[in-house]
Design brief:
The protein is mainly β and about 260 residues long. The protein has helices at about 5-15, 80-100; strands at about 25, 40-55, 60-70, 105-110, 115-120, 125-140, 150, 165, 175, 180-185, 200-205, 210, 220-225, 225-230, 235-240, 245, 255-259. The chain has 2 domains: about 5-140, 2-Layer Sandwich (Alpha-Beta Plaits); about 200-259, no CATH class. Strand 15 and strand 16 (about 245) form a beta hairpin. The two termini are about 45 Å apart.
Length: about 260
């Protein structure tokens, strides 16, 4: 993630490296020229807002930029000023887009920006363009590495007694089924083991069957497509090691073992 300070630095470095722009300001419009005289062409930028999507961890900052230059009192160069400032505006957007395309920076820029022109603005008769665009960046792992010490969420001295402890790293991961039921809770950096079942197909001879291996967990089967498992009335009398004993002779019938 890049910080707001780095966004300002990115914009200012564009002005410094650009072959035409003379001055850069960041902040409110009334501050432009307040600390030192303006040398035109001018690039002035301000932050409109900053949005954060908690679920995706994406921060979006909306920046407004104003590119302007002086127009003669008789307005004889107004069209030239507008044309030059428009091209400089395109330069900035393409410059940031090239940085976004670089693998070294985790930023993106919005795909479109609408430029709005103005003439004879401010006391010095400046004309130019202003436009907004979004600089989008991911916070990476910052949400898992908060600058917060571990400790109780609540004080533990009123309604919520001995409150849960909040880790300064990541919250635990909840393992849920498709109905929203919590099957397990895995702590940060923990491991959740999933048992993967396999299916083996057999043709029964008599009332017994020898499996290829000894079941170590869940076991059930399908006899001619009908589910069966160990227990009275469920067709399988017992499983000892890898020997399955059925409640009757099912010679020639198909049995699919799942375990």
């Amino acid at each position: 993630m890049i910080t707001l300070n780095q966004v300002v630095e990115l914009l200012q470095n564009f002005q410094i490296k650009h072959k035409v722009l003379k001055t850069f300001y960041f902040g409110d419009e009334w501050e432009v020229g307040a600390s030192s005289p303006i040398q035109y062409p001018l690039m002035w930028a301000s932050l409109i807002n900053s949005k954060y999507d908690i679920k995706t961890g994406v921060a979006t900052r909306t920046i407004q930029v104003d590119i302007s230059d002086l127009v003669n009192r008789d307005e004889s160069n107004e069209a030239s000023v507008l044309s030059d400032c428009e091209l400089i505006s395109y330069d900035l957007l393409n410059y940031i887009d090239q940085i976004a395309d670089s693998a070294d920076f985790n930023i993106r820029i919005s795909d479109q920006s609408t430029l709005n022109n103005y003439t004879e603005k401010r006391d010095d008769m400046a004309s130019g363009w202003y436009f907004t665009f979004d600089i989008i960046t991911s916070i990476d792992t910052m949400s898992c590495q908060l600058p917060v010490n571990s400790g109780a969420i609540f004080s533990g001295n009123y309604i919520y007694i001995n409150g849960n402890v909040l880790s300064s790293t990541c919250a635990p991961v909840l393992i849920k089924d498709q109905y929203g039921n919590i099957l397990s809770i895995v702590p940060s950096n923990g491991t959740y083991i999933v048992e993967v079942l396999t299916e083996e197909d057999y043709i029964i001879t008599g009332n017994t069957l020898t499996l290829s291996r000894v079941p170590t967990g869940v076991f059930f089967g399908f006899l001619e497509g009908v589910k069966c498992q160990v227990g009275t009335g469920f067709r399988i009398l017992s499983i000892v090691g890898n020997l399955v004993t059925f409640d009757a002779d099912y010679t020639g019938q198909n049995f699919a073992a799942v375990y």
